[in-house]
Amino acid sequence: MAYNSEQAATSAYVFMIQSLLSPFKEVVHIMPVKKIDGEKYFAVVKKTIVELDSIGFKVIGVVSDKNSINRKAMSNFSVPPKLSIVYPHPSEPSNPLFFVIDSMHIFKCIPNNWINQKNAGQCFYFPDFEDHNKFPLLEANFSTLKQLYDIESNNLVKFAYGLTLKALCPTNLEKQNVKLVLKIFNNFE
């Protein structure tokens, strides 16, 4: 059951702590939800931080993707609510609480969105960053990477030696694997 509903949960928010100075990391709370808004999520995040602080952990930051619910929850750490990268700590307002965007999550979103393009060639279109007034837009074709893989798959020497079928056609679970994302973008494995 969801923590905030009589219905079955459709997702779970997992809270973890990770040390900055050692390899220690641990799940500290799992919250199954059907649906949640930023206000309710803020209350859970704040309570989790305060309780961790009360047992001796020093929470200095919250790492999250840029999901609107996460942004809304974090904005509530200031009065009036305002999105920022640093807030007063809920246990000790003279200390900072940092809001850190999970850059790896954003990095993984790029090829996932590219793979999900429905146009011919699975193309991303983007402006020329040297001359933004230049038209037409430039394009990056995901299908070109697939063609390169097909051409080189049986070759001993390859230009794209790190490119794999798993990186080009990942399952939903594999789409979360940073190593597979790097096989698409990295020249040197």
From TrEMBL:
Domain Transposable element P transposase-like RNase H: residue ranges: 4-77
InterPro entries in alphabetical order: TNP-like_RNaseH_N (IPR048365)
Pfam families: TNP-like_RNaseH_N
Name of the protein: THAP-type domain-containing protein
Gene name of this polypeptide: AVEN_5131_1
